Amino acid sequence: MKKKNARAWFTCINEACGRRYELDEIVYKCHTCGGLLEVTHDMARLKKERSASEWRALFQKRWKTTNYPYGSGIWGKKEWVLPDIDNNHIISLYEGDTNLCFTRRYGEALGVPDLYIKMCGNSHTGSFKDLGMTVLVSQVNHMIQHGAKIRAVACASTGDTSAALSAYCAFAGIPSIVLLPKGKISTAQLVQPISNNSIVLSLETDFDGCMKVVQEISKRPEFYLANSMNSLRVEGQKSISIEMVQQLEWEVPDFIIIPGGNLGNVSALGKGFQMMLDLGLIRKKPRIVLAQAQKANPLYQSYRNGFKTFEPVKAGKTLASAIQIGNPVSVNKAIKMLKAFDGIVEQASEAELADACAEADKFGYFTCPHTGVALAALKKVIRRGIITRKHRVIVISTAHGLKFSDFKVKYHEEKLSGIRCRFANKPIVLEPKVDKILAVLDKKIR
């Protein structure tokens, strides 16, 4: 049952059920029907508290201040995230507030001059996962402070989730457990939870296998589940939508391109836009394009049949390792949101995503392979004539390219199996003689 004065609570996403739970209950799926949960806010109360213009003014006043915790991109919107939590229990590393980069020359090259990249990887651990993890770990800390017997927080991960969980738990002084698929994540991603003193378990399986194990472990209430099936994460990630519109002076873009693996991000961004619409801060929705790697594309296959069915797949090895997921837990939320936002699902081959990364980097970016999936999908939607020069488009860059430096090096050394690497740029080995150097420069620089 909902607390009398609670301003937010869990609700089963199945409309026929709709059972409610307290946010301080340890629950991940509905006990009645098995459906996923979502955090529901008292929208009538939010409308009564402030008008749309007052909400915009409040969020702008808090933007990047040092007034803890409101300078965080997430906690600056606290009333829309976890309104009932004590500020002293919030675990924040001042995540969010990332730059919305106007692409200029790159957008013109693609034929979409009004193109932006939202650099979510410019965050504490180098990915957008920080945005949801600050909310989840804060709620866990809040529960522990009120007597919950939680011994550790656990997650399965392909890299970025484990980095975020380990950092925020280390900051909070809460033990963390990380289950990783052995040999399937980058060294940069592996070293983050190790450095943050997590208990790191390298399992001889894929992400979906790790996910099955962590769900079994978290049946014991002292091990709290941190994966995206825990809808607390969505509350932080939805801030991306609010932040982008705020950065565009409260104007809504025409299209959002999102790379998708476990599919928590598409439901999160959709929720952020829907809240702004319901509270009058915006007047229209963007269209959402969900991009998947071709080797891990169950939602793309479902989209192809009009979402009539959904079948998990055995994810193949992909350069976009963080979205190498064949059985995403948030699929039902994602499909619901894509239908509400006139969504499109596209896919990218290994060559397409690798070349899209390298092409963007030529214009000054250092994109992760998952952003490459989104950029490759964008190019396909442009070729289909759905996105044109008149549209304002934002691509969500989910992680920092430095986490995938091995991928970058192999691309430019032309050592990626089966990929031609059209934009490879190898160093030129020369004798230290000025005449020979100038001859090369004259040839290269036109």
Automatic annotation (TrEMBL):
This is Threonine synthase. The lineage of its organism: Bacteria, Raymondiibacteriota. Its EC number is 4.2.3.1. GO terms for biological process: threonine biosynthetic process. The modification N6-(pyridoxal phosphate)lysine is found at residue 129. Keywords: Pyridoxal phosphate. Residues 91-398 form the Tryptophan synthase beta chain-like PALP domain. The keyword Nucleus does not apply. Its cofactor is pyridoxal 5'-phosphate. PANTHER family: CYSTATHIONINE BETA-SYNTHASE. One of its GO terms (molecular function) is threonine synthase activity. Belongs to the threonine synthase family.
